[in-house]
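Thread: Newbie trying to understand structure tokens

Hi all, I'm a second-year student working on a class project, and my supervisor (Dr. K.) asked me to get a predicted structure for one chain before our next meeting. I've only ever worked with sequences, so writing a 3D structure as a token string is new to me. If someone could post the tokens and maybe explain what I'm looking at, I'd be very grateful. Here's the chain:
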Amino acid sequence: MWVHEIDPIAVALGPLKIHWYGLMYLVGFASAWYLGVRRARRSGSGWTEEQVSDLIFWGAIGVVLGGRFGYVVFYNFGQFLDDPLWLFAVWEGGMSFHGGLLGVIAAIGYFSHKYHKSYFDIGDFVAPLIPIGLGAGRIGNFIGGELWGRPTDQTWGVVFPRAGDMIARHPSQLYEFALEGVVLFTVLWFYSARPRPRMAVSGMFLLLYGIFRSSVEFFRQPDIQLGFVALDWLTMGQVLSLPMVMLGAVLLVRAYRTPVAG
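---
Reply by user tm_fold:
Sure, no problem. This is what the structure looks like when written as tokens:
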């Protein structure tokens, strides 16, 4: 058992405090840009470095706005109804992956219209660029001692003081880092390295993320303000991930039934 005592603040300059979690966002966006440019430089990629930079810019806006909106609507809708302006209280923290995903989906739609590119061609290009950012975000969660797991008697259990007790818990943030970050990136990067039918890479991302997130939720403590939201055992994360699994499976089936890209 280990007691979590990591300082979530990376740099403190007077009243200005830079948190590790915020730096993890920079890691995610920078890695997405680097990997995107690397693939754009390949012969016949159909992408320019300028387009990649523009895509990452709008994607970052989608992540931040969508992530905040999703957290408020999916996880704290009651507080939003009591105080609608709380939506803009970003300094209090609170982001949702599923909301961020919706923001990215909207950004891809705008980018598709601007550059006259196929929506799923863009989705297939960007999907492998996302997992490193997801993994970095989970490291940020762990450093911040938030989103802890359920109680465990395993030797690798961690005591998170912010939980308000001295109970050893699953370091579920690290489980998510391993699956959503390392495994998902590895699979998508090598899967997309060879030509695939349109929608296949996007479908693989949705399917695997949904499965990984739903699996780790069994070890993660449900959000205190929500608890279990369905059947007395399903969490909000699982409820939101189920449509991803179904949509990912549908896209993969459609992709390989119509394998000709163009």
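A couple of things are worth pointing out once you decode it. The chain has nine helices and five strands. The radius of gyration is 19 Å. Feel free to ask follow-ups in this thread.
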